[in-house]
Design goal:
The complex is a heterodimer of chains A (556) and B (91). With 556 residues, chain A is α+β, with helices and mostly antiparallel strands. Helix content of chain A is 39%, strand content 17%. In chain B, the strands form two sheets. Chain B has a five-stranded antiparallel beta sheet with strand order 3-2-1-4-5, with helices on both faces. A two-stranded antiparallel sheet of chain B has the order 6-7. The longest helix of chain B has 12 residues. The chains are: A alpha+beta (556), B alpha+beta (91). Chains A and B meet through helix 1, strand 13 and helix 14 of A and helix 2, strand 6 and strand 7 of B.
């Protein structure tokens, strides 16, 4: 993985010193909250319901055991012993004191981490396929390009005061495991006409109050011109985007209002000159960055592993874990292991300091010291020898991290909601917990197969409810929590927004209604159909009927 | 009736204006004020930004938040309804 050079170290240390001074001036009263707010937001610090919240960047979700142990140390020393992984593959701490922030940021800088650009109107953490560098279907590892984007976008003077935040995701396979079409810009690595690396570019995706699926603006931008093309997009938006209305400032609104063709013309105008300037990425520089992401020293192994196969036969719980949480790897004899942060009744994405240490130990011992944060709020050990998977599973079991539910119905994506967030209208976590307990039976979940359920506590959609196969949005109705259900959303290469099925439900009706939806699917699915396939085939009506049937009966 | 609440500057914790407008952590110690008194206390604590960040008024009935934001204010006063993620689950 990437290691800081002297410029990275100096930049992060300078920022720690600068922000420490700002914190000291705030604590002394020299800065007012209004003066301090834009400064803290440039450093990932929010003021939430109960405390300050610090969001720490995990660039493209890739980190190592030393960094994970430092995250555990921070949770223990400055917080309440846990952290929360987010849908931007960052980690949030919910309870740090203002006066501890300089020490926390200094501790992070020691291990090449920071909180720069995890909030505010700037280019946020670039995300990617959690299986990058491990997936069988990848044509190229997207992480070097994420790193190049990170270096280009970090404290970029032109893009530090954008109309709103800006999110980029990159994938290296046809299969979209990073929800790129829900991003301001989504990039898919393709082969250009000359056979070289190129990028298919989607623009204007986004969730929130006015959701849009990204549209293809370019089919194959040559790799060397990537930064010129991204600059052209950002410049066009920065000049034309609205700043008078926060709800209409994202690039999705601009693209939708002027139309894709007109926006493309604007971008091409800038691109025509920008591509002739110094923004071309020199091949040797791209190669230098790629070298950081060279595959680890894999052993030459057969496809099959006797210890793995024996464990499959010996232990049905391991067999279930292997079915649901172990993914095929491009290298024979290896696998990627999904570490679920969705235990039955737990808080989606939460992890304790001890669990962080346990995962760090496993990454160091069995995983070439590499860890990934998934936007689904799980962790991944990307490179584990199949021979070692049973041992890793037993250690995860001991740490309470072996829930065999990856991509199943209880692998719920949920924002912190009104339990923590000052923007939320309703709670999300208790609704996710109620659903998790109701659907806990793993035999039932496996019968259902892959289903993505997403919950957001407000229209800002941090829980990505618009693109959940089943989405749940918390709303406030005269001071009471209600939940609007959508069906048929999809975050992947067939990206779609879900349909709102009808009037919102009270909190305790949500889990039963979702279970009826899933039961209806089991009744009507054709052979081999996943939940989302059935929804696409029959539309939302049968599910609407299922959701409201008992309510209608009660009202009849 | 109303109470005055804010977040504490040093650590962001929820505080209320209590006796002599001193910051108190428990909603039980918050001064219960009529509309006129509430405005006066709000102005007073707004003048102490070294402690009270973003102060505002909360409607209460029997010391329990009762206005439109009552759920949010109850959560602020009691902490997350889902407890904390600690070893072995949620407490």
């Amino acid at each position: 993985m990437y290691r800081y050079d002297e410029f990275d170290h100096a930049l992060v240390r300078e920022r720690v010193a600068e922000f420490s001074d700002q914190v000291a001036r705030r604590a002394s009263g020299a800065l007012t909250e209004d003066e301090f707010k834009p400064l803290r937001l440039m450093n990932g610090v929010y003021l939430q319901l109960h405390a300050y919240m610090l969001r720490v960047a995990i660039p493209y979700g890739t980190f190592n055991s030393r960094q994970m142990r430092r995250l555990a140390h921070i949770a223990r020393t400055y917080d309440k012993g846990y952290g929360h992984f987010t849908t931007r593959t960052n980690i949030q701490y919910n309870w740090p004191a203002l006066t501890d922030l300089p020490a926390i940021l200094s501790d992070l800088a020691d291990v090449e981490m920071h909180a720069i650009q995890t909030s505010g109107n700037c280019i946020r953490n670039t995300t990617t396929d959690v299986f990058a560098g491990a997936a069988e279907d990848e044509i190229e590892d997207p992480r070097p390009w994420c790193e190049i984007i990170r270096q280009w976008s970090t404290i970029h003077p032109e893009f530090s005061f954008l109309p709103r935040k800006f999110k980029i995701a990159v994938i290296g396979a046809e299969k979209d495991r990073a929800a790129i079409r829900t991003h301001d810009v989504g990039l898919q690595i393709v082969r250009g006409e000359d056979g070289g690396t190129a990028f298919r570019v989607f623009v204007g995706g986004g969730q929130g109050r006015l959701p849009h699926i990204g549209q293809e603006i370019a089919s194959a931008v040559p790799a060397a011109d990537l930064l010129a093309y991204l600059t052209a997009i950002l410049r066009a938006w920065n000049l034309l985007g609205r700043r008078d209305n926060i709800h209409k400032a994202r690039i999705k609104i601009l693209v939708a209002s002027v139309g894709l063709e007109a926006f493309r013309e604007e971008v091409d105008k800038h691109y025509a000159t920008l591509r002739l300037e110094d923004l071309r990425i020199p091949e040797e520089e791209a190669e230098r960055i790629k070298a950081y992401f060279a595959p680890p020293p894999f052993e030459d192994l057969p496809e099959a592993s006797a210890p793995f196969d024996r464990a499959l036969l010996a232990d049905p719980d391991f067999a279930r874990f292997a079915r649901n949480n172990v993914r095929r790897h491009r290298q024979a004899g290896y696998a990627s292991v999904v570490v679920s942060l969705k235990p039955v009744g737990g808080v989606p994405g939460d992890i304790t300091a001890d669990q962080m240490d346990a995962v760090a130990d496993l990454a160091e011992r069995y995983g070439f010291d590499e860890l990934r944060a998934a936007y689904e709020q799980n962790l991944v050990l990307p490179h584990v020898k199949l021979d070692d998977v049973p041992t890793v599973w037993r250690a995860l079991l001991e740490a309470g991290l072996a829930t065999a539910n990856a991509d199943l119905a209880t692998d719920v994506i949920a924002c912190p909601g009104l339990d923590y967030c000052s923007l939320a209208n309703a709670r999300s976590i208790p609704v996710a917990q109620a659903l998790s307990k109701r659907l806990a039976d793993l035999d039932y979940q496996e019968r259902l197969g892959p289903v993505r359920i997403n919950m957001s506590g407000c229209i800002n959609a941090c829980g990505h409810h618009h693109v959940g196969h089943i989405g749940v949005l918390g709303v406030d109705r005269k001071g009471e929590e209600y939940y609007q259900i959508t069906v048929g959303g999809s975050p992947d290469e067939q990206a779609a927004l879900g349909d709102i099925v009808g009037k919102s439900l009270p909190a305790d009706e949500v889990a039963p209604a979702i279970q009826r939806t899933l039961d209806r699917y089991l009744q009507i699915r054709a052979d081999g159909e996943r939940f989302i396939d059935t929804v696409r085939r029959v539309g939302p009506d049968p599910f609407r009927d299922a959701i409201y049937e008992t309510l209608d009966a009660a009202n009849a | 009736m109303k109470i005055v609440t804010a977040n504490r500057l040093s650590d962001g914790r929820v505080i209320y204006a209590g006796v002599d407008n001193q910051p108190v952590e428990g909603i039980g110690q918050a001064s219960i004020l009529d509309d006129a008194a509430a405005e006066i206390v709000l102005a007073e604590v707004a003048g102490r930004p070294d402690i009270f960040v973003n102060p505002y008024l909360v409607e209460v009935q029997d010391r329990t938040p009762s206005g439109r934001d009552r759920l949010k204010e109850r959560i602020r006063s009691a902490g997350p309804t889902v407890g904390h993620s600690v070893a072995g689950g949620v407490s």
